[in-house]
Design a protein that fits this description.
The complex is a heterodimer of chains A (about 400) and B (about 475). Chain A is of the alpha+beta class and about 400 residues long. Chain A is built from 14 helices and 18 strands. Chain B is built from 17 helices and 19 strands. The chains are: A alpha+beta (about 400), B alpha+beta (about 475). At the A-B interface, strand 8, helix 7, strand 10, helix 8 and helix 9 of A face strand 9, helix 8, helix 9, helix 11 and helix 17 of B. Bound molecules: flavin-adenine dinucleotide (FAD) (2 copies). Chain A: Keywords: FAD, Flavoprotein. Chain A: It holds the Pfam family FAD_binding_4.
C-alpha cells in the first residue's frame, strides 16, 4: 500500500494528477484517525495531509483564521484561545467514539463538516467556512471563497465542499470565520422530564429572546434521572439575568438548577463528543430530524433497544443500538425518513458499513444532481471512491 | 455603456409565436405577457442603465407550471431569466431579446409556519419583509435584512445570497436557509433539505444559494425564523478621522463584543442622508459609525458602556445614544435610505466589494484617489463589521462620457478590493455588472471548476445566460467527462 504525504500544494496536485492518469483511486486522510468513518474506501494508495501543516493567516480583529489542511485542530483551537477566540461550531472530538488515538486535523473537520452543540445558534462548520484551497480529482489546484466574511463572487464552492468527506476534492487550506470566547458560561438543568416534555421545554427556551447557546436532553438510562440541559453564555450579569428569565419561562416544567463553569464545560464537551453513547462497540447512529419530531423518534429507538440522547433541542439524536446484522439500518433509515429527516451510521464494523447505506440515499432527482456534481469535480472517481455512496 | 450583451439568436426569435402558444397552454390568461409596453416593465432591474426587452414574460403560480415552462424552454433551446422583484443592483435579472422572463412574484404564499421548530416554508416570490411580518406577532423574525427588504423576494435573496445591516450577528441568507424546492432546466422538481438542520449527501443548498439563477429556478424555501431580542438600541459616533473609526471597530471586535450591526458612513454620505432623513447626524465629522446592540435594558446598557469606552479611547468627537424608539427609527431611517437619498442628489452606481477590515483606511484613501482621478464624487456607506463596502460613485446620466468614467472608477475600486485580499462582491452578486472582472479574483482553472458545474446542471447554458461568468470563460461540454453521470 503506497502512502503519499505531500508537503506542498503542487506536490498534492501532481499526486492526484498521476493517480488519475493511471486510474488508481486514492483514500484521503487527515490525521489518519479515520478508522470506521463512512463506507470503507477500497484503494491501493492513500494520501495523507499530515505534512501540509501550519496556520497561514490569523487576524483576531477581523475574526478570521486560515490553516493548511493537515494542521492539528488542537493547534488552531489553542492559537485562538490565546486571543480569547474560538471556532464557533465547537468541533466534536470523535476519538472517544471511535477509540482512535490520532490527531483530528483542520481538513478532516472541514471535509466531515464536524460540528457541535453550539450549532443551534452559531451554525455548523460549513457556516463558518469562508474559503478553501483544494485539488480536485483532475489534479487541478483551485481556490474558492477567500478571507473575508461576506463574499458572493461566483458559485460558493466552499459550502458545497464542506461535508463532502474527501470525495470531491482534497483540501489543502481552509479559512474559517471565528467568534469571541464567551466570558462565562452556566448550564441550567431540569430533572426528570419525559422526552416529549423535555423537547417542549427546549423549544420554548430556544424560541425565547434569552438565546441559549446549546440545548440537550439526556433521557433516563441505567436508573439515572433524566436531565434536560440549556447553556447560557456571555458576561456575568447577563448570565444572572437570563437564568432568572428562563426559570420563569420554564416554571411549569419543574425547578431549574444552575451548574457553574466547572461542571458546565465538561458536560457540554460530553454532549459534543457523543460520550453518552460512546461506551462499548455497539453501532452508533446520528439522526437529524426537526425538533418537534424528535420525541417520537426517541420512542421508536427505545423500542429497538437503543440508548440515545438529544442534541440541539431534539434536532439531532445520537443513538447506540444493539449490534445486529444490519446495525438496524433498515429500521433506522425508515424511522428517520418518516420524521422528515435522515440518519447516518457513524460507528459499525467495516463489513456492515459496506453492506448498508451509511448515509441515507437522497431521493432520485437529488441523487442525480449529486452524481453530476461528483462528475464535475472528480470524473474518474479517483478520490475516496464509494466513501459516501456505493458506486459514487 | 461598456458591458456587452450577446446577439439575440435569430432561430429562437423565429419561434416566438410557437413559444408563446406553448406558454399559454401552461399558464392561462394574463399569466403570459406579450404586448411590448407590458414587457417593458421587465426590461431592466435596479441597474437601470442597461435594458433589453424580453421576448415574452410568464408569471406561473405553481411549481408544476414552472417545471412545464422549463421543459418547454429546454426543448426549444430558449434562454430563461428567472426574476423576483427586479431589485438586483448587479443586473442579475436583466433579460435579453431572445429570452423568456420567468417571474415568480405571484408565488408569494406562506405554506407552513412552525414556531416549535422555528422554521417557515414559503413560496419563493414572497418578499423578505413579508416573511418577518407573518411571524412578528409571536415575536419572531427572519434575520437577513437587505435594505430593499420591502420589495425584494426570498428567491432573489437566495439567488444573490443577500445580506443586510444585521448580518454581523445573524449571518447572510446562506446561514438561514434549511430547505429549497428547485426546478432544473430539464423540468425536474428537486427537494433539498427541509425542517431538519442538515440534509444527506453534498450540500446542494450551499451550492444553490448565491448561484444567481444559473443552476435552477427556486419555487419554495424553508427558512429559519428567530426570536427577536428583547430590545435593540443603536449608538452613533462621529470621528474627525477615518482611522479613529477603523480602530474603534477593530477594538470592539477584539474585545469580544459582537454588536448586531456596525455601519459606517463618510462625510459625503452623512450629508446626503441627513438632508433626506433628518436623523440628527453630525455634519462636521469625517466618519460616522452606527453600532447597534441587543438584549434586555441592563444588557444593552452594559454593552454600550463598554463600546463607548472604546470609542472614547479613539478620540470620538460625537456620541449619541438613542433614548427612544423614535430616535432609533430615525437613526436607521437615515442609513437605510442612503441609496434613495443619493439618488435624489445625483445618478450613481452603487459598488459592492469586500475588504479585510484592517485595510480600511488605506482602501478609503484609494477610493478617494480613484474617483477624483476621474473627476467624480463618491459617498461611502458600508457594513464595517465585515468590511463590505458600498461606494456610491456619482455621475450625470445625461453625459454618456461621464457614465463610462463612473463605470471605470467602479471597476478600479473593485480591483483595489481584490488586491488587498478582498472580493468583487459581498452581497449584490456578479450579474452582468462584474462578470468581466471575474478574472481579477479567479484564475481560469478556478473558473473552469465553476463552469463545469454550470455545464453539468444546465448543459445548453439556457439559465440566465451572459451573467456571472465572462462571455469567454473557459467551458467544457458536460459530455466531455468520461464518467458522465448516469441520470
Ligand atoms: C458518517 C460520519 C458522520 C460523522 N458525524 C460526525 C458528527 O456529526 N460530528 C462530528 O463531530 N464528527 C463526526 N464524524 C467524525 C469526523 O469525521 C472526525 O471528527 C474528523 O474527520 C476528524 O479529523 P481527521 O483529521 O482525523 O480526519 P480523517 O479521519 O483523517 O478524515 C475524515 C474524513 O475527511 C476526509 N479528509 C481528511 N482530510 C481531508 C482533506 N484535506 N481534504 C479532503 N478530505 C479530507 C477523509 O477522507 C475522511 O472522509 C463523522 C464521521 C462520519 C464518517
Ligand atoms: C435600494 C436597494 C437596496 C438594496 N440593499 C441591499 C442590501 O442591503 N443587501 C443586499 O444583499 N442587497 C441589496 N439590494 C440588492 C437586491 O435587493 C438583492 O440582490 C435582492 O436579493 C434581489 O431580490 P429580487 O427579488 O429583486 O431579485 P431579482 O432582482 O428579480 O433577481 C436577482 C437574481 O435572482 C435570480 N432569481 C430571481 N428569482 C429566482 C428564482 N425563483 N430562482 C432562481 N433564481 C432567481 C435572478 O435571475 C437574478 O439573477 C438592494 C437593492 C436596492 C434597489
Amino acid at each position: 500500500m503506497t502512502l503519499h504525504t505531500p508537503s506542498t500544494a503542487a506536490e498534492l496536485a501532481a499526486i492526484v494528477a498521476d493517480a488519475r492518469a493511471t486510474r488508481s483511486p486514492l483514500a484521503i486522510s487527515g490525521g489518519g484517525t479515520r478508522a470506521g468513518l463512512g463506507r470503507p474506501v477500497q484503494a491501493a494508495a492513500s494520501l495523507s495531509t499530515t505534512k501540509l501543516t501550519g496556520i497561514t493567516l490569523y487576524e483576531p480583529a477581523e475574526l478570521v483564521i486560515a490553516a493548511r489542511a493537515g494542521t492539528p485542530l488542537a493547534q488552531v483551537v489553542e492559537t485562538l484561545a490565546q486571543r480569547g477566540q474560538r471556532l464557533p461550531f465547537e468541533p466534536m472530538d470523535h476519538r472517544g467514539l471511535f477509540g482512535t488515538a490520532g490527531e483530528p486535523t483542520v481538513g478532516g473537520v472541514a471535509a466531515a463538516n464536524v460540528s457541535g452543540p453550539a450549532r443551534i445558534n452559531l451554525g455548523a462548520a460549513r457556516d463558518s467556512m469562508i474559503g478553501l484551497k483544494f485539488v480536485n480529482g483532475r489534479g487541478e489546484d483551485i481556490k474558492t471563497g477567500g478571507r473575508v466574511m461576506k463574499n458572493v463572487t461566483g458559485l460558493d464552492l466552499t459550502k458545497t465542499l464542506a461535508g463532502s468527506h474527501g470525495t470531491l476534492a482534497v483540501f489543502h487550506e481552509v479559512c474559517f470565520k471565528v467568534s469571541p470566547l464567551a466570558e462565562r458560561e452556566a448550564t441550567l438543568v431540569i430533572e426528570g422530564l419525559s422526552d416529549a416534555l423535555a423537547i417542549e421545554a427546549l423549544s420554548a427556551a430556544l424560541g425565547s429572546p434569552f438565546e441559549p447557546t446549546a440545548a440537550a436532553h439526556l433521557p433516563a438510562f441505567d436508573g439515572a434521572r433524566a436531565r434536560t440541559l440549556l447553556r447560557i453564555e456571555g458576561f456575568g450579569p447577563m448570565i444572572t439575568y437570563r437564568t432568572g428569565e428562563l426559570a420563569k419561562l420554564l416554571k411549569r416544567f419543574g425547578a431549574l438548577e444552575t451548574l457553574g463553569e466547572a461542571e458546565s464545560g465538561p458536560l457540554w464537551q460530553a454532549v459534543r463528543d457523543a460520550a453518552f453513547v460512546a461506551a462499548g462497540t455497539d453501532p452508533v447512529w446520528r439522526i437529524s430530524v426537526a425538533p418537534s419530531k424528535g420525541a417520537a423518534v426517541g420512542t421508536k429507538l427505545a423500542a429497538l433497544g437503543g440508548r440515545y440522547f438529544y442534541d440541539w433541542g431534539g434536532g439531532l439524536i445520537w443513538a447506540a443500538v444493539p449490534a445486529s446484522g444490519d446495525a438496524s439500518a433498515a429500521a433506522i433509515h425508515a424511522l428517520a425518513k418518516a420524521a422528515g429527516g435522515h440518519a447516518t451510521l457513524v460507528r459499525a464494523p467495516d463489513a456492515v458499513r459496506l453492506s448498508v447505506d451509511v448515509f441515507d440515499p437522497p431521493a432520485a432527482p437529488l441523487m442525480t444532481l449529486q452524481r453530476k456534481l461528483k462528475a464535475s469535480f472528480d470524473p474518474d472517481g479517483i478520490l475516496n471512491p464509494g466513501h459516501m455512496y456505493a458506486g459514487l | 455603456m461598456t458591458i456587452a450583451f450577446p446577439e439575440p439568436q435569430a432561430a429562437v426569435l423565429a419561434k416566438r409565436d410557437a413559444i408563446i402558444a406553448g406558454l399559454q397552454a401552461i399558464v392561462p390568461g394574463e399569466g403570459v405577457i406579450t404586448a411590448l409596453d407590458e414587457r417593458r416593465a421587465f426590461e431592466t432591474d435596479a441597474l437601470t442603465s442597461y435594458r433589453r426587452v424580453p421576448m415574452v414574460v410568464v408569471l406561473p403560480e405553481t411549481t408544476e407550471q414552472v417545471s412545464a415552462i422549463l421543459k418547454l424552454c429546454n426543448r426549444e433551446g430558449v434562454p430563461v431569466v428567472a426574476r423576483g422583484a427586479g431589485t438586483s443592483l448587479a443586473g442579475g435579472a436583466i433579460p435579453q431579446e431572445d429570452a423568456v422572463v420567468l417571474g415568480i412574484a405571484k408565488m408569494n404564499r406562506v405554506l407552513e409556519t412552525n414556531f416549535a421548530d422555528r422554521t417557515m416554508r414559503v413560496q419563493s416570490g414572497i418578499t423578505n419583509l413579508a416573511i418577518s411580518g407573518e411571524v412578528a406577532h409571536e415575536g419572531f423574525f427572519y434575520a437577513p435584512d437587505p435594505s430593499s427588504q420591502l420589495a425584494c423576494t426570498i428567491a432573489g435573496n437566495v439567488a444573490m445570497n443577500s445580506g443586510g445591516a444585521h448580518c454581523l450577528k445573524y449571518g447572510v441568507t446562506a446561514n438561514n436557509i434549511l430547505g429549497l424546492k428547485l426546478v432544473t432546466i430539464e423540468g425536474e422538481i428537486v427537494e433539498i433539505g427541509g425542517a431538519a438542520l442538515d440534509s444527506p449527501g453534498y450540500d446542494l443548498i450551499g451550492l444553490m444559494v448565491g448561484s444567481e439563477g444559473q443552476l435552477g429556478v427556486v419555487t419554495e424555501v424553508t427558512v429559519r425564523i428567530l426570536r427577536q431580542a428583547e430590545g435593540a438600541r443603536p449608538v452613533l459616533f462621529g470621528f474627525d478621522e477615518i482611522g479613529q473609526a477603523g480602530r474603534t471597530v477593530a477594538d470592539i471586535i477584539g474585545a469580544g463584543i459582537i454588536p448586531v450591526a456596525i455601519e459606517y458612513m463618510d462625510r459625503e454620505a452623512i450629508a446626503i442622508c441627513e438632508a433626506f432623513a433628518h436623523a440628527g447626524y453630525p455634519l462636521d465629522v469625517e466618519a460616522m459609525l452606527i453600532i447597534e446592540v441587543e438584549g434586555s435594558e441592563a444588557e444593552m446598557e452594559a454593552m454600550l458602556a463598554r463600546i463607548v469606552e472604546i470609542a472614547r479611547a479613539h478620540q470620538v468627537k460625537v456620541i449619541k445614544e438613542s433614548k427612544s424608539a423614535i430616535e432609533t427609527a430615525a437613526i436607521w431611517k437615515g442609513r437605510k435610505s442612503a441609496f434613495g437619498a443619493t439618488g435624489r442628489v445625483a445618478d450613481y452606481i452603487c459598488m459592492d466589494g469586500t475588504i479585510p477590515t484592517g485595510r480600511l483606511p488605506e482602501v478609503l484613501a484609494g477610493i478617494d484617489r480613484i474617483v477624483k482621478g476621474y473627476g467624480l464624487r463618491v459617498a461611502n456607506v458600508f457594513h464595517a463589521g465585515d468590511g463590505n463596502l458600498h461606494p456610491l460613485v456619482m455621475f450625470n446620466v445625461n453625459d454618456p462620457a461621464e457614465q463610462v468614467k463612473a463605470e471605470h472608477a467602479g471597476e478600479d475600486i473593485l480591483r483595489l478590493c481584490v488586491e488587498v485580499g478582498g472580493c468583487l462582491t459581498g452581497e449584490h452578486g456578479v450579474g452582468i455588472e462584474k462578470r468581466d472582472l471575474m478574472r481579477e479574483q479567479f484564475s481560469d482553472t478556478d473558473l473552469l471548476q465553476q463552469t463545469r458545474i454550470k455545464s453539468a446542471l444546465d448543459p445548453q447554458w439556457l439559465l440566465n445566460p451572459a451573467k456571472v461568468f465572462p462571455l469567454d470563460a473557459p467551458k467544457e461540454a458536460a459530455s466531455s467527462t468520461p464518467a458522465k453521470a448516469a441520470a
